[in-house]
Amino acid sequence: MSSNQVIDLLKKAYNDEMETVMNYQALSIVLDGIHAEEIKESLQQDVQEELGHAEQLGQRLKQLDSSPPGSEEFVAHQDTLQPPADTTDVTSVIDGVLDAEEDAINTYRELVDAAEAANDPVSEDLAVTLLADEEAHRTEFRGFKKEYKGN
Fold first, then answer.
1. Burial class of residue 45, CB neighbours in 10 A (0-12, 13-18, 19+)
2. Do residues 45 and 136 lie in contact, with contact meaning Cβ atoms separated by under 8 Å?
3. Cα–Cα distance, 94 to 75 (Å, whole number)
4. Mutual orientation of helices 121-148 and 90-117 as an angle, nearest 10°?
5. How does DSSP classify residue 89?
6. Residue 71 and residue 93: Cα distance in Å, rounded?
7. How far from 28 is each of 17, 65, 78, 80, 125, CA to CA, in Å?
8. Burial class of 104 by CB neighbour count within 10 A (0 to 12, 13 to 18, 19+)
9. Rounded to an integer, what distance in angstroms lies between the CA atom of residue 109 and that of residue 124?
10. Of 30, 133, 135, 146, which one has the fewest beta carbons inside 10 Å?
11. What is the number of alpha carbons within 13 Å of residue 25 lying toward its C-beta?
12. What are the boundaries of the region Disordered (predicted)?
């Protein structure tokens, strides 16, 4: 794989992280009900972490003589992570988060492979670190799914 593929994946990951920040922020505001409080708190914490991921990806792009994409290059795709019509529908939010985390995990795995093939250990290390964070988020929300299954 080439360094261009690494840059493309870094940009995709950056866009995904920024979209996740927007959606987690919106969800942490709109969810209602006692069952939603723990989810809202987790999403609020994750907003800062995902924003940090975007910052790291953007810095890496700059180091590779590229730049993070601006809003004109942004294309939203997190359909399942949109605020639900029923603002007490915690289960649909959990499912949307799990979809977003799976997408991020897949992107970071691709980036690990691409960076290794391009002999770019710095991008590879960044991808491994961010992959671990996303896997931790997925584990947390899998737990929420088990807990909220009966609600």
1. middle
2. no
3. 22
4. 160
5. -
6. 25
7. 16, 35, 16, 15, 31
8. buried
9. 9
10. 146
11. 11
12. 60-89
Q: pLDDT by residue for the chain (151 residues), tens digit each? A: 568 999 999 999 999 999 999 999 999 999 999 889 999 999 999 999 999 999 999 999 999 999 999 999 999 999 999 999 999 999 999 999 999 999 999 999 999 999 999 999 999 999 999 999 999 999 999 999 998 875 5
pTM: 0.94
Give alpha helix (H) positions in the chain. Answer: 3-30, 37-63, 90-117, 121-148
**Which value, in Å, is the radius of gyration of the alpha carbons in the chain?**
16
Q: Are 148 and 97 in contact (CB under 8 A)?
A: no
d(CA 87, CA 104): 25
Residue 3 tokens read as 């360094």
Domains of the chain by range and CATH? 4-149 (1.20.1260.10)
What backbone phi and psi angles, to 5 degrees, belong to 119? 55, 50
Residue 149 makes CB contacts below 8 A (sequence gap 6+) with: 91
